[in-house]
Automatic annotation (TrEMBL):
Name listed for the protein in its UniProt record: Pimeloyl-ACP methyl ester carboxylesterase
Organism, as annotated: Variovorax boronicumulans
Listed GO MF terms: triacylglycerol lipase activity
Annotated GO biological process: glycerolipid catabolic process
TM annotation in the entry: none
Any Pfam family the entry gives: Abhydrolase_1
Length: 306
């Protein structure tokens, strides 16, 4: 493990315990990073976080509920995902006992973390499901959100292009709980998400998968998070009323959340800016970091506009 890795800390927030760490000056502008479906905070690479911190941010990453070292919900069991998807596709309401929590609850977790750290407002950046949670934070807690960065995320609106078959198959494949099986699934999933591009990134997959396995594998938690995405539905109508300065970042070769989904967010949120990363799939390769970090830093100036 990297000897300069910041220590993992724990706080109570919104009734759950959240694991988090941070980079940079504690007095700098807070930038909250929200991870995607079933992924731990370590998917925000330490070097990426350090480079953001060098641009003047206090970078905070954390494990969402039901993943990594944050609170799990084993008592909720495994949701019936096929039934949820059928109800969603039929336009039928979902909620109540069908899912243990929604994306709104996960957004409340994120704001609860800010409360615990005595942070009045922060720049909020989420990737994939984390982007959807970030949208919920901005929609529900506008005074707590300085700016929003929505990376490879969708509005959830019906009619948008679906994932490619290989990506959808990967999404719906159960997570193995044995180390060898987990490691292999992670490597296969990352290749699929990158669309077979950026092979130089593969050397980082093994150590990251090993760390994630050591921190805790929770297949039912993955399913519950996916259920929360399905049950939470579309944010499109509410996003049209959003006044938080918003930056959309998306790859033009994303096999899981096609770029049209990012374009929909950018076209829906008033005055949103969009940065398209050429050749990028559903992962942030190191070669894209300079473009993405520059865009994030430039976007922060919108804070003054508010």
């Amino acid at each position: 493990m990297h000897r300069d890795l910041p220590p993992t800390r724990f706080v109570r927030a919104n009734g759950v315990e959240l694991a988090y760490d941070s980079f940079g000056d504690s007095a700098a502008q807070p930038l909250l990073l929200i991870a995607g479906l079933g992924t731990q905070m370590i998917m925000w690479d330490e070097t990426f976080c350090e480079r953001l911190a060098a641009r003047g941010y206090r970078v905070i990453r954390f494990d969402n509920r039901d993943v990594g070292r944050s609170t799990w919900f084993p008592q909720a069991g495994e949701p019936d995902l096929p039934a949820l998807m059928r109800r969603s596709q039929a336009g039928q309401p979902i909620g109540g006992a069908s899912v243990p929590y929604m994306l709104a609850d996960m957004a409340a977790d994120a704001v609860g973390l800010l409360d615990a750290l005595d942070i009045t407002s922060a720049h909020v950046m989420g990737m994939s499901m984390g982007g959807a949670i970030g949208q919920e934070v901005a929609l529900r807690y506008p005074k707590r959100t300085r700016t929003l960065v929505s990376i490879m995320a969708t509005s959830g609106a019906p009619g948008l292009p679906p994932p490619r078959p290989a990506a959808l198959s990967m999404l719906m494949t159960p997570t193995p709980v044995d180390r060898e099986g987990y490691m292999q699934r992670h490597l296969d999933a990352m290749k699929t998400l990158r669309g077979g591009i950026f092979p130089e990134e593969e050397k980082y997959d093994v150590p990251r998968a090993a760390r994630a396995f050591e921190r805790g594998v929770n297949p039912d938690g993955y399913a519950r998070q996916l259920a929360a995405i399905i049950a939470s539905g579309s944010r499109k109508e509410r996003l049209a009323l959003l006044r938080t300065p918003t930056l959309v970042v998306h790859g033009d070769r994303d096999p899981l959340v096609p770029i049209e989904c990012g374009m929909d967010v950018a076209h829906t949120v008033p005055y949103a800016r969009m940065v398209t990363v050429r050749g990028m799939g559903h992962a942030l390769p190191r070669s894209a970091w300079p473009q993405v970090i520059d865009a994030i830093a430039e976007h922060s100036v919108w804070t003054e506009w508010r």
